[in-house]
Amino acid sequence: LQRQLAQAQKMEAVGVLAGGIAHDFNNLLQVTLGFSEILLEEKKETDPEYRDLQKIFQAATSGAELVRQLLTFSRKVEPKTVPLDLTEPIMQIKKFLNRTIPKMIDIRINVSGDLAEVDADPTQIEQILMNLAVNARDAMPEGGTLTITARNETLDSECVKCHPGVSPGDYVLLAITDTGTGMDTGIVEHIFEPFFTTKEIGRGTGLGLAMVYGIVKQHGGHITCQSDVAQGTTFKIYLPAIRRKTEPVTESSEEMPAHGT
Ligand code: ADP
């Protein structure tokens, strides 16, 4: 709980920081971008200053992209939830991955046919899948297997002991597994922190997993990471399942206390 609190406070701090300075900082970047663009148009490619100007323009463009990510991150977008079958966003992502992931990475999808629905924002679920898939790709530079699994899972009072802070009940489990480089425990401890990255400057912002964590929490869910160096990594996300359709739903039963909580 202490860790979760620290994490929430850090996210809050990043939010305040980003909200406060990102906007002004963006204005400065726009000036840099604008004037370097004008100068680039005036110069010929053979001019000695041309390459330096191009570098200024590219750096300002990267800065603007970082600010955009920060602003998206700090804006607490309330999820627009609908009863959602996770098969839909998974199939959307599969299409995207087939086009963008190198051929040496094998993509496998295991979605059970009787998947319960969850109350979720489809766009945010796609964002989660995208961030986790991109990290999995980066962890498999020499190829491997990326597996996306979705199935129903009931966590009873015994199971929840392994998941601190989680109530017993019915969940939909969404798992993303790769056979990549893996991480040692020293790294796993920090991966959900904003700005934690092991990637080169310009390749990673360290905001991907912090964003995933925030979205999962806003959906009342839970996320775990199991990783072994040189073996691979599995992220598991548990989202509360909506009561099965066959169960009667009436006004009064909505107000009844849920079983087992
Ligand atoms: P970024 O990808 O920009 O570095 P993230 O928050 O998405 O930021 O990830 C933080 C760090 O967690 C990465 O830099 C990497 O070290 C580690 N990481 C995340 N996913 C994986 C994975 N599937 N395999 C190995 N390392 C990972």
UniProtKB/TrEMBL annotation:
GO terms for biological process: regulation of DNA-templated transcription. Keywords: ATP-binding, Kinase, Nucleotide-binding, Phosphoprotein, Transferase, Two-component regulatory system. Transmembrane segments: none annotated. It comes from the Bacteria. Residues 20-243 form the Histidine kinase domain. GO terms for molecular function: ATP binding; phosphorelay sensor kinase activity. This is histidine kinase. It comes from Desulfomonile tiedjei (strain ATCC 49306 / DSM 6799 / DCB-1). The lineage of its organism: Bacteria, Pseudomonadati, Thermodesulfobacteriota, Desulfomonilia, Desulfomonilales.
